[in-house]
Design a protein that fits this description.
Largest sheet: 6 strands, parallel
Structural class: alpha/beta
Number of strands: 11
Order of helices and strands: EEEHEHEHHEHEHEEEHEHHHHH
Bound molecules: nicotinamide-adenine-dinucleotide
Strand content: 15-25%
Strand order of the largest sheet: 8-7-6-9-10-11
Helix content: 40-55%
Length: 352
Protein backbone atom coordinates (compact mmCIF):
# COMPACT_ATOMS: atom_id res chain seq x y z
CA UNK A 1 0.00 0.00 0.00
CA UNK A 2 1.70 3.21 -1.16
CA UNK A 3 0.57 6.50 0.35
CA UNK A 4 2.12 8.68 -2.35
CA UNK A 5 0.49 6.63 -5.13
CA UNK A 6 -2.85 6.42 -3.34
CA UNK A 7 -5.82 7.66 -5.36
CA UNK A 8 -6.86 9.98 -2.50
CA UNK A 9 -3.33 11.35 -1.97
CA UNK A 10 -3.38 15.04 -2.83
CA UNK A 11 -0.02 16.39 -1.74
CA UNK A 12 -0.82 15.75 1.92
CA UNK A 13 1.87 17.26 4.15
CA UNK A 14 2.06 14.44 6.66
CA UNK A 15 0.50 11.06 7.30
CA UNK A 16 1.18 9.39 10.64
CA UNK A 17 0.54 5.71 11.29
CA UNK A 18 0.04 5.13 15.00
CA UNK A 19 0.35 1.78 16.76
CA UNK A 20 0.24 1.26 20.51
CA UNK A 21 0.40 -2.48 21.26
CA UNK A 22 -0.49 -2.06 24.96
CA UNK A 23 -3.90 -0.49 24.27
CA UNK A 24 -4.44 -2.03 20.85
CA UNK A 25 -4.56 1.40 19.19
CA UNK A 26 -4.21 1.43 15.44
CA UNK A 27 -4.82 4.86 13.98
CA UNK A 28 -3.90 7.14 11.11
CA UNK A 29 -3.56 10.91 11.37
CA UNK A 30 -3.57 12.75 8.03
CA UNK A 31 -2.58 16.39 7.69
CA UNK A 32 -3.50 17.72 4.27
CA UNK A 33 -2.51 21.37 4.34
CA UNK A 34 -1.46 23.88 7.01
CA UNK A 35 -1.07 27.04 4.90
CA UNK A 36 -3.86 28.81 6.78
CA UNK A 37 -2.92 27.43 10.19
CA UNK A 38 -2.68 24.19 12.15
CA UNK A 39 -4.85 21.35 10.91
CA UNK A 40 -8.22 20.97 12.63
CA UNK A 41 -10.41 17.93 12.15
CA UNK A 42 -12.33 15.25 13.93
CA UNK A 43 -11.28 11.74 14.87
CA UNK A 44 -13.45 8.98 13.44
CA UNK A 45 -13.64 5.47 14.94
CA UNK A 46 -14.85 2.80 12.57
CA UNK A 47 -14.38 -0.96 12.07
CA UNK A 48 -12.70 -0.50 8.70
CA UNK A 49 -12.60 -3.66 6.60
CA UNK A 50 -8.93 -3.01 5.80
CA UNK A 51 -6.06 -0.64 6.61
CA UNK A 52 -6.38 0.59 3.04
CA UNK A 53 -9.99 1.67 3.70
CA UNK A 54 -8.89 3.52 6.82
CA UNK A 55 -6.17 5.34 4.87
CA UNK A 56 -8.63 6.23 2.12
CA UNK A 57 -11.00 7.78 4.66
CA UNK A 58 -8.25 9.67 6.50
CA UNK A 59 -6.78 11.16 3.30
CA UNK A 60 -10.18 12.11 1.84
CA UNK A 61 -11.56 13.61 5.05
CA UNK A 62 -8.37 15.57 5.81
CA UNK A 63 -8.46 17.15 2.35
CA UNK A 64 -12.13 18.01 2.85
CA UNK A 65 -11.28 19.88 6.06
CA UNK A 66 -8.74 22.08 4.24
CA UNK A 67 -11.46 23.20 1.83
CA UNK A 68 -14.07 23.60 4.55
CA UNK A 69 -11.83 25.70 6.81
CA UNK A 70 -10.66 27.88 3.93
CA UNK A 71 -14.22 28.77 2.90
CA UNK A 72 -15.33 29.23 6.49
CA UNK A 73 -12.60 31.86 6.85
CA UNK A 74 -10.83 29.95 9.63
CA UNK A 75 -7.15 30.23 10.41
CA UNK A 76 -6.93 26.48 10.30
CA UNK A 77 -5.75 23.92 7.84
CA UNK A 78 -7.16 20.49 7.15
CA UNK A 79 -6.53 17.26 9.00
CA UNK A 80 -8.40 14.23 10.21
CA UNK A 81 -7.70 11.07 12.11
CA UNK A 82 -9.19 7.61 12.08
CA UNK A 83 -9.03 4.89 14.71
CA UNK A 84 -9.44 1.38 13.36
CA UNK A 85 -11.89 -0.33 15.70
CA UNK A 86 -15.50 -0.89 16.63
CA UNK A 87 -16.80 2.06 18.69
CA UNK A 88 -19.30 -0.29 20.39
CA UNK A 89 -16.65 -2.79 21.57
CA UNK A 90 -13.14 -1.44 21.40
CA UNK A 91 -13.20 1.83 23.35
CA UNK A 92 -11.02 2.13 26.45
CA UNK A 93 -9.32 4.80 28.54
CA UNK A 94 -5.92 3.38 27.49
CA UNK A 95 -6.84 3.56 23.80
CA UNK A 96 -7.86 7.23 23.90
CA UNK A 97 -4.93 8.19 26.10
CA UNK A 98 -2.61 6.56 23.56
CA UNK A 99 -4.36 8.50 20.79
CA UNK A 100 -3.93 11.71 22.80
CA UNK A 101 -0.19 11.01 23.10
CA UNK A 102 0.09 10.62 19.33
CA UNK A 103 -1.75 13.91 18.79
CA UNK A 104 0.67 15.51 21.27
CA UNK A 105 3.71 14.27 19.32
CA UNK A 106 2.60 16.55 16.50
CA UNK A 107 3.14 19.57 18.73
CA UNK A 108 -0.04 21.41 17.67
CA UNK A 109 0.17 20.78 13.94
CA UNK A 110 -3.09 18.83 14.36
CA UNK A 111 -6.02 19.57 16.69
CA UNK A 112 -8.39 16.67 17.30
CA UNK A 113 -12.19 16.87 17.80
CA UNK A 114 -15.11 14.45 17.76
CA UNK A 115 -16.51 12.76 14.65
CA UNK A 116 -18.47 9.63 13.76
CA UNK A 117 -17.97 7.00 16.48
CA UNK A 118 -16.18 9.42 18.81
CA UNK A 119 -18.05 11.43 21.44
CA UNK A 120 -17.10 14.33 23.69
CA UNK A 121 -16.09 12.07 26.65
CA UNK A 122 -13.66 10.18 24.36
CA UNK A 123 -12.00 13.45 23.32
CA UNK A 124 -11.86 14.44 26.98
CA UNK A 125 -9.78 11.32 27.68
CA UNK A 126 -7.41 12.31 24.84
CA UNK A 127 -7.23 15.75 26.48
CA UNK A 128 -5.50 14.16 29.49
CA UNK A 129 -2.49 13.65 27.21
CA UNK A 130 -2.67 16.64 24.87
CA UNK A 131 -3.79 20.26 24.84
CA UNK A 132 -4.55 20.03 21.15
CA UNK A 133 -8.25 19.14 21.39
CA UNK A 134 -11.40 21.05 20.43
CA UNK A 135 -15.10 20.58 21.11
CA UNK A 136 -14.73 19.31 24.68
CA UNK A 137 -17.32 20.39 27.23
CA UNK A 138 -14.98 22.05 29.76
CA UNK A 139 -14.23 25.46 28.22
CA UNK A 140 -15.92 24.29 25.04
CA UNK A 141 -19.09 25.41 23.32
CA UNK A 142 -21.01 22.14 23.72
CA UNK A 143 -23.42 20.91 21.05
CA UNK A 144 -22.50 22.55 17.71
CA UNK A 145 -25.86 21.68 16.08
CA UNK A 146 -27.64 25.01 16.74
CA UNK A 147 -24.74 26.82 15.06
CA UNK A 148 -24.73 24.37 12.15
CA UNK A 149 -28.48 24.89 11.74
CA UNK A 150 -28.05 28.67 11.81
CA UNK A 151 -25.44 28.43 9.04
CA UNK A 152 -27.77 26.23 6.97
CA UNK A 153 -30.61 28.71 7.51
CA UNK A 154 -28.41 31.61 6.36
CA UNK A 155 -27.30 29.50 3.39
CA UNK A 156 -30.91 28.75 2.46
CA UNK A 157 -31.63 32.49 2.55
CA UNK A 158 -28.70 33.15 0.20
CA UNK A 159 -29.91 30.43 -2.17
CA UNK A 160 -33.51 31.72 -2.09
CA UNK A 161 -32.27 35.21 -2.90
CA UNK A 162 -30.09 34.02 -5.78
CA UNK A 163 -32.38 31.43 -7.34
CA UNK A 164 -35.87 32.70 -6.51
CA UNK A 165 -35.24 36.41 -5.94
CA UNK A 166 -36.81 35.96 -2.50
CA UNK A 167 -35.64 38.16 0.37
CA UNK A 168 -37.79 36.24 2.86
CA UNK A 169 -38.59 32.57 3.26
CA UNK A 170 -42.22 33.16 4.20
CA UNK A 171 -44.54 31.19 1.96
CA UNK A 172 -41.75 28.98 0.58
CA UNK A 173 -42.08 25.21 0.97
CA UNK A 174 -39.07 23.45 2.42
CA UNK A 175 -38.57 19.68 2.66
CA UNK A 176 -36.35 18.83 5.63
CA UNK A 177 -35.01 15.29 5.45
CA UNK A 178 -34.03 14.27 8.97
CA UNK A 179 -35.16 16.29 11.98
CA UNK A 180 -32.47 15.23 14.42
CA UNK A 181 -30.04 17.68 16.02
CA UNK A 182 -29.54 20.01 13.08
CA UNK A 183 -32.90 19.42 11.38
CA UNK A 184 -34.83 20.37 14.50
CA UNK A 185 -33.06 23.72 14.98
CA UNK A 186 -33.32 24.40 11.26
CA UNK A 187 -37.10 23.79 11.34
CA UNK A 188 -37.37 26.23 14.22
CA UNK A 189 -35.68 29.02 12.25
CA UNK A 190 -37.58 28.28 9.04
CA UNK A 191 -40.94 28.19 10.83
CA UNK A 192 -40.17 31.46 12.60
CA UNK A 193 -39.78 33.08 9.18
CA UNK A 194 -43.05 31.65 7.90
CA UNK A 195 -41.79 28.84 5.69
CA UNK A 196 -44.05 25.83 5.17
CA UNK A 197 -42.36 22.66 6.40
CA UNK A 198 -42.48 19.14 5.01
CA UNK A 199 -40.47 16.72 7.14
CA UNK A 200 -39.38 13.09 7.14
CA UNK A 201 -37.53 11.00 9.68
CA UNK A 202 -37.33 7.37 10.74
CA UNK A 203 -37.66 8.35 14.42
CA UNK A 204 -41.28 8.99 15.39
CA UNK A 205 -40.47 11.08 18.48
CA UNK A 206 -38.37 13.49 16.41
CA UNK A 207 -41.24 13.86 13.95
CA UNK A 208 -43.80 14.39 16.70
CA UNK A 209 -41.75 17.25 18.11
CA UNK A 210 -41.59 19.28 14.86
CA UNK A 211 -45.25 18.59 14.08
CA UNK A 212 -46.29 19.81 17.51
CA UNK A 213 -43.95 22.79 17.76
CA UNK A 214 -43.88 24.04 14.16
CA UNK A 215 -46.95 22.55 12.47
CA UNK A 216 -44.77 20.58 10.02
CA UNK A 217 -46.38 18.13 7.58
CA UNK A 218 -44.99 14.59 7.64
CA UNK A 219 -43.92 12.88 4.41
CA UNK A 220 -42.67 9.29 3.98
CA UNK A 221 -38.85 9.00 4.12
CA UNK A 222 -38.68 7.68 0.56
CA UNK A 223 -40.76 10.62 -0.78
CA UNK A 224 -39.12 13.62 0.90
CA UNK A 225 -36.26 14.20 -1.56
CA UNK A 226 -38.60 14.44 -4.50
CA UNK A 227 -41.50 16.26 -2.82
CA UNK A 228 -43.11 19.25 -4.54
CA UNK A 229 -41.23 22.00 -2.71
CA UNK A 230 -39.10 25.06 -3.41
CA UNK A 231 -36.18 23.90 -1.29
CA UNK A 232 -34.92 20.43 -0.43
CA UNK A 233 -32.80 20.38 2.75
CA UNK A 234 -31.01 17.04 3.29
CA UNK A 235 -30.18 16.85 7.00
CA UNK A 236 -29.84 13.10 7.52
CA UNK A 237 -27.69 10.96 5.25
CA UNK A 238 -25.23 11.57 2.44
CA UNK A 239 -25.55 10.65 -1.25
CA UNK A 240 -29.24 11.55 -1.49
CA UNK A 241 -28.61 13.43 -4.73
CA UNK A 242 -28.02 10.48 -7.02
CA UNK A 243 -29.03 8.97 -10.36
CA UNK A 244 -32.32 7.83 -8.90
CA UNK A 245 -33.47 11.03 -7.15
CA UNK A 246 -32.01 13.59 -9.53
CA UNK A 247 -34.47 13.27 -12.44
CA UNK A 248 -37.38 13.36 -9.97
CA UNK A 249 -36.30 16.37 -7.88
CA UNK A 250 -38.92 19.10 -7.92
CA UNK A 251 -37.10 21.60 -5.71
CA UNK A 252 -35.30 24.58 -7.24
CA UNK A 253 -32.72 24.55 -4.46
CA UNK A 254 -30.80 21.82 -2.62
CA UNK A 255 -29.41 23.20 0.64
CA UNK A 256 -28.99 21.21 3.86
CA UNK A 257 -26.55 20.07 6.51
CA UNK A 258 -25.79 16.49 5.45
CA UNK A 259 -22.21 15.68 4.50
CA UNK A 260 -21.43 14.38 1.00
CA UNK A 261 -24.88 15.07 -0.45
CA UNK A 262 -23.79 14.37 -4.02
CA UNK A 263 -23.44 10.64 -4.63
CA UNK A 264 -20.72 11.48 -7.18
CA UNK A 265 -19.00 14.73 -8.16
CA UNK A 266 -20.72 14.68 -11.56
CA UNK A 267 -24.09 15.14 -9.85
CA UNK A 268 -23.11 18.77 -9.16
CA UNK A 269 -23.09 19.45 -12.90
CA UNK A 270 -26.28 17.41 -13.34
CA UNK A 271 -28.06 19.68 -10.84
CA UNK A 272 -26.86 22.74 -12.75
CA UNK A 273 -28.15 21.28 -16.01
CA UNK A 274 -31.55 20.89 -14.40
CA UNK A 275 -31.54 24.49 -13.16
CA UNK A 276 -31.38 23.41 -9.52
CA UNK A 277 -29.18 25.57 -7.33
CA UNK A 278 -26.96 23.51 -5.04
CA UNK A 279 -25.42 25.01 -1.89
CA UNK A 280 -22.22 22.93 -1.57
CA UNK A 281 -22.49 20.86 1.61
CA UNK A 282 -19.12 21.65 3.12
CA UNK A 283 -19.77 25.39 2.78
CA UNK A 284 -23.30 25.50 4.16
CA UNK A 285 -22.71 23.05 7.03
CA UNK A 286 -19.58 24.75 8.42
CA UNK A 287 -21.39 26.44 11.36
CA UNK A 288 -20.30 23.74 13.79
CA UNK A 289 -16.60 23.94 12.99
CA UNK A 290 -16.79 27.76 12.98
CA UNK A 291 -18.25 27.81 16.48
CA UNK A 292 -15.64 25.32 17.72
CA UNK A 293 -12.89 27.55 16.32
CA UNK A 294 -14.16 30.35 18.61
CA UNK A 295 -14.18 28.34 21.82
CA UNK A 296 -11.90 29.22 24.69
CA UNK A 297 -11.92 31.42 27.77
CA UNK A 298 -12.88 34.54 25.75
CA UNK A 299 -15.76 32.87 23.89
CA UNK A 300 -18.23 35.50 22.63
CA UNK A 301 -21.41 33.95 21.32
CA UNK A 302 -22.58 36.93 19.28
CA UNK A 303 -19.18 37.20 17.56
CA UNK A 304 -19.14 33.48 16.84
CA UNK A 305 -22.65 33.52 15.36
CA UNK A 306 -21.80 36.60 13.29
CA UNK A 307 -18.96 34.55 11.85
CA UNK A 308 -21.37 31.70 11.06
CA UNK A 309 -23.65 34.21 9.31
CA UNK A 310 -20.88 34.88 6.77
CA UNK A 311 -21.82 31.56 5.16
CA UNK A 312 -24.58 33.62 3.48
CA UNK A 313 -22.16 35.90 1.61
CA UNK A 314 -19.67 33.14 0.87
CA UNK A 315 -22.43 31.18 -0.84
CA UNK A 316 -23.60 34.22 -2.81
CA UNK A 317 -20.03 34.64 -4.08
CA UNK A 318 -19.88 30.97 -5.05
CA UNK A 319 -23.26 31.16 -6.84
CA UNK A 320 -22.20 34.25 -8.81
CA UNK A 321 -18.87 32.73 -9.78
CA UNK A 322 -20.52 29.48 -10.84
CA UNK A 323 -22.94 31.44 -13.06
CA UNK A 324 -20.13 33.51 -14.57
CA UNK A 325 -17.95 30.44 -15.20
CA UNK A 326 -20.95 28.30 -16.25
CA UNK A 327 -19.84 25.52 -13.93
CA UNK A 328 -21.41 23.59 -11.06
CA UNK A 329 -21.51 25.40 -7.72
CA UNK A 330 -19.60 22.47 -6.20
CA UNK A 331 -16.73 23.14 -8.62
CA UNK A 332 -16.84 26.91 -8.06
CA UNK A 333 -16.63 26.28 -4.29
CA UNK A 334 -13.55 24.07 -4.71
CA UNK A 335 -11.81 26.69 -6.87
CA UNK A 336 -12.56 29.48 -4.37
CA UNK A 337 -11.28 27.34 -1.49
CA UNK A 338 -8.09 26.54 -3.41
CA UNK A 339 -7.51 30.26 -4.03
CA UNK A 340 -7.90 30.86 -0.32
CA UNK A 341 -5.55 28.21 0.98
CA UNK A 342 -3.01 28.51 -1.81
CA UNK A 343 -3.22 32.30 -1.46
CA UNK A 344 -2.38 31.92 2.21
CA UNK A 345 0.83 30.13 1.25
CA UNK A 346 1.77 32.86 -1.23
CA UNK A 347 1.21 35.58 1.41
CA UNK A 348 3.35 33.69 3.94
CA UNK A 349 6.18 33.42 1.39
CA UNK A 350 5.96 37.13 0.57
CA UNK A 351 6.09 38.03 4.25
CA UNK A 352 9.19 35.87 4.84
P1 LIG B 1 -28.72 13.34 13.91
O1 LIG B 1 -28.32 11.91 13.96
O2 LIG B 1 -29.06 14.05 15.18
O3 LIG B 1 -29.98 13.54 12.94
C1 LIG B 1 -30.16 12.81 11.78
C2 LIG B 1 -31.64 12.46 11.70
O4 LIG B 1 -31.87 11.81 10.45
C3 LIG B 1 -32.09 11.51 12.81
O5 LIG B 1 -33.24 12.04 13.45
C4 LIG B 1 -32.41 10.22 12.05
O6 LIG B 1 -33.46 9.48 12.63
C5 LIG B 1 -32.79 10.76 10.69
N1 LIG B 1 -32.70 9.78 9.60
C6 LIG B 1 -31.85 8.73 9.48
N2 LIG B 1 -32.13 8.05 8.35
C7 LIG B 1 -33.13 8.72 7.74
C8 LIG B 1 -33.85 8.53 6.53
N3 LIG B 1 -33.59 7.51 5.71
N4 LIG B 1 -34.82 9.41 6.21
C9 LIG B 1 -35.12 10.44 7.02
N5 LIG B 1 -34.47 10.67 8.20
C10 LIG B 1 -33.50 9.81 8.54
O7 LIG B 1 -27.53 14.09 13.14
P2 LIG B 1 -27.27 15.65 13.04
O8 LIG B 1 -26.21 16.02 14.01
O9 LIG B 1 -28.54 16.39 13.03
O10 LIG B 1 -26.60 15.74 11.59
C11 LIG B 1 -27.37 15.63 10.42
C12 LIG B 1 -26.45 15.65 9.21
O11 LIG B 1 -25.71 16.87 9.19
C13 LIG B 1 -25.42 14.52 9.17
O12 LIG B 1 -25.18 14.16 7.83
C14 LIG B 1 -24.19 15.18 9.75
O13 LIG B 1 -23.00 14.55 9.28
C15 LIG B 1 -24.31 16.58 9.19
N6 LIG B 1 -23.61 17.60 9.98
C16 LIG B 1 -23.94 17.81 11.27
C17 LIG B 1 -23.29 18.80 12.01
C18 LIG B 1 -23.66 19.09 13.45
O14 LIG B 1 -23.28 20.15 13.97
N7 LIG B 1 -24.42 18.24 14.10
C19 LIG B 1 -22.28 19.57 11.40
C20 LIG B 1 -21.96 19.34 10.05
C21 LIG B 1 -22.64 18.34 9.35
Amino acid sequence: MSVFEHVEFDGHEQVVFCHDPASGLKAIIAIHNTNRGPALGGCRMWPYASDEDALTDALRLARGMTYKSALAGLDYGGGKSVIIGDPKRDKSEALFRAMGRYVETLGGRYTVAEDVGISVPDVEVMAKETRHVAGVSAGGVGDPSPATAYGVYMGIKAAAKHRLGAEKLSGLRVAVQGVGHVGYYLCRRLAAEGAELLVADIAQDSLDRVVKEFGAHVVAPEAIATAAVDIYAPCALGATVNDETLPALQAKIVAGSANNQLAEARHGEALRQRGILYAPDYVINAGGVIIISHEGPNYDESRAFAHVAQIHDTLLEIFRRADAMKVATSLAADRLAEERFRGAAAKATEAA
